[in-house]
Amino acid sequence: MTLALNSKNKLGFVNGSIRAPSEDNDPEEHAAWSRCNDMVHSWIINTLNPEISDSVIYYSTAYEVWEDLHERFSQSNAPRIFEIQRDIACLRQEQLSVSTYYTKLKGLWDELASYNDTVHGTQQEQQKLMQFLMGLNESYSAIRGQILLMNPLPSVRQAYSSISQEEKQRLLSSMHTGGDSSGSAAMAVRNSNNRSTEHLSAGFGRSERFNNSYGPQGFRSQEKPTGNFSGGRRFQQDGRRPTFGRGRPYCTHCEEAGHWVQTCYQLHGYPAGHPKTKYGSGSKRFNNNKHIANHVSTAENEQPVIGISQDQLKQLLSLIDNKTEGSSPHANAVTKPGLSKVTSRNWIIDSGATDHISSKLFTEKHTKCSLPPVLMPSGQKADIVAKGSLPINSVYYLHNVLCVPTFKVDLLSVSRLTRDLNCSIIFFPYWCLLQDLATRRMIGLGKQHNGLYYLVALATKQHTSKQTPTINQPTCNLITSSTNLWHNRLGHTSPSRLRFIAQNFLNFSIQSNNTCHVCPLAKQSRLPFHSSVISSTKPFALIHCDIWGPYRHPSISGARFFLTIVDDFSRFTWIFLMRHKSETQSILKKFFRYVFTQFEAHIKIFRSDNGGEFISLRTFFHNNGVIFQRSCVYTPQQNGVVERKHRHILQVARALRFQAHLSTQFWGECALTATHIINRLPSPVLSFKTPFELLFSKPPSFSHLRVFGCLAYATNVRITHKFAPRSIPSIFLGYPPGQKAYKLFDLSNEKNFY
Q1: Cα–Cα–Cα angle for 280, 286, 288, nearest 5°?
Q2: What pTM was estimated for this model as a whole?
Q3: pLDDT tens, residue by residue, 386-404
Q4: Which domains does the chain have, with CATH numbers?
């Protein structure tokens, strides 16, 4: 109601913010207000129950009506908040699509937020994320685990986007899945006279467009005898695919648009009162030519887990055909080589038992124990007299079996059996299979009798050691450890994440010595480089050298490069502007003579990269006894001292140019001035001493420093007449080496001078 009134700009008439103007002072405004008030009054009256509207119809203003209704019918929000919280906790995806499930959940969140505007922040977002993930079907457990491992956790919108993409991907994969048995996870049994297997259809992760009442991990495929199939898709009789609009519902059963398969009347029956109800429900109108796929739920989504050969499959089909014959659970047991009958005891496979229980005393080694008694379903207690190991056949043993003589049956605990034999158990309507997790082979068979599953056959020694795989067996039957298998399935994830998933989701032990030869090829990166330290003990024992450039804009002297030399001990820096890289050799040879003349020292180690201008000086270094050190290819970090010095010089040079508002052609003078300043700045690497002080053994002078790029007036010494200007306006460009002067730029003739 408030939304409707606010959209019409009439909310003020019911909350009292729009008051009635004076009829005497402004009769026109009062008449307009009265019309609007009567209109809002009539709106409210028409929305009320006749019994309630009669009690408020005689009020003169809409505000009075609203206040009367508010006082009579207003109530606390607590019951509705409780109801919303309960709906959120109980909401599950089940047959809904991810989009529909998220929309319902978001509607509840938004309604709850309207009652309480004070709850905001990261904690509420995480709570929404957990509620959304908890309600998803188990078919999304893999991507749910990946989302929970993210740090930081994504928002609920990002999680919905990821799961929605997963749903679409599964839909596309299911549409492209053919009748090949290698990609199947459900066994389709054709209901015909020859009992031949024709289609193995993947039934995991289907979108809700193709799901029916079997849930998210199984689907029901029904074929019409006149339809043609190609690669698992349904086609019309002329070979064309059925066309329908984007997003429009389409039924895969009757091949008609306008509804989904979940609501198909032909499949689920017509409702009462429908004109076609007289023909009977759709589920009873199928003829014998339509085939229903029997499904096997598996614990894996990405690959088939039924690793049985074609011969074993035919044998199992023959057992299903004879499911009604015989009165004993051991009737029609497997006689194929590789499986032997279990005749010692009538073992009942019980998913509700926590331990194996035998009613007979052990013939093998056992120990007497004083365990708490077993609680019977009737409430009585049965004493445990012994605990030990018991062989099922010559290959498999049961451990920690409890001997309870008062029991009349022998029970196999599913939880302990799967751990002891490292297998999975797959239940059919009349049979169950025991499948080895490592080899994916069928190692046991159980038969349903009087509502219970009895173990009737187990693998023999020859089956597990001598049987060789046939061409009909899946390639996943290779013997692979669980650690390596799940490491490959999870995209070669890190050991820490694999250990977390194994402990919290998959429940298998991690092998610490598991070695993967793919991870180094895919993930290897360089080890971190050690921090650079001063490795020399005196100046010029080691110098670092590198060339910067070329720069696309030449300086005012025509230079495009500069050569940088850094002393390792003092970190004193020299740079030399160059037009070409070929000038490097002559500059370095002059620098060697400069060091010997000015400091009476010899350069011992010269370190640079693999530039050709440095390699060409190997003969010079050899003749002068200098060790030439080069960095490895594509490893500038090994020459990091001069590389970082380049960064420092360019940072200061840019600051000087921006401060002086000079054009790019002055970059060379900016770099020279920056180097002059850096040599006189204290550094934490040098214990806050300056490079100048360490090299010349005296502190630097700062009295000669001036602001770079400032306006300077140089004295004009060439005066031609009495009224000629006595100074030349110019720009300060730095400190030239070898001269007790400043470098200036004449603004009139655009030339440098000192």
Answers
A1: 140
A2: 0.39
A3: 888 888 777 788 888 888 8
A4: 2-73 (no CATH), 78-173 (no CATH), 177-305 (no CATH), 310-467 (no CATH), 542-696 (3.30.420.10), 711-753 (no CATH)
